[in-house]
Amino acid sequence: MLRDVSDSGSSVNPVSGDPVYASYSPLELPKFEVVGTLAWFFFIINLFKVPFSASLGLIYGSSLALNAVLVPAILAGLFAGRWLIGRVSQRVFEGLLLVFAALAALRLVLSSQTVCVETCS
């Protein structure tokens, strides 16, 4: 169920990872399996969204050029993340997943109240 929330949430607001992280936490999977599975999961979701984004005019020449320029930063993040995950214990990793999921939930609640104050009155 939380994975369904992630799919719809990633199109509306970039907070989709946190419900999925929280759903993987009770499974007690090794941290590299969680990170690898989620990387593939979001890669497939985002790949699926490409045709829709293109048809809405959200992908164009200059955005693709920016993406190409950012490839080195993406690769640096990949290696830095792999290095960091290797140095964090499993227990700390699981705790961080829950803390970030709670912070995201709090952010959603606070932002929904702001939107409602502006549009619900």
What does it look like?
The chain is mostly helical. The chain has one domain. Helices cover 83% and strands 0% of the residues. The protein has five helices and no strands. α2 (17-24) packs antiparallel against α5. It is globular and about 45 Å long. The model is unreliable at 1-10 (pLDDT under 50).
Question: Quick summary of this structure?
Answer:
The chain is an all-alpha fold and 121 residues long. It is 83% helix and 0% strand.
Point out poorly predicted stretches: 1-10
Mean pLDDT: 79
Shape: globular
Ends: how far apart? 32 Å
Which H/E pattern describes the elements?
A: HHHHH
Label the structural class: mainly alpha
Most strands sheet: none
What is the rounded Rg? 17 Å
Strand composition percent: under 5%
Q: Say how many strands there are.
A: 0
State the domain count: 1
The amount of helix comes to: over 70%
Alpha plus pi helix count: 5
Summarize the helices and strands and which ones pair or pack.
Blueprint lengths: L1 H11 L4 H8 L6 H25 L5 H27 L2 H30 L2
Helix pairs in contact: 1-2, 2-5
Provide key terms for this protein:
121 residues, mainly alpha, 0% strand, globular, disordered N terminus
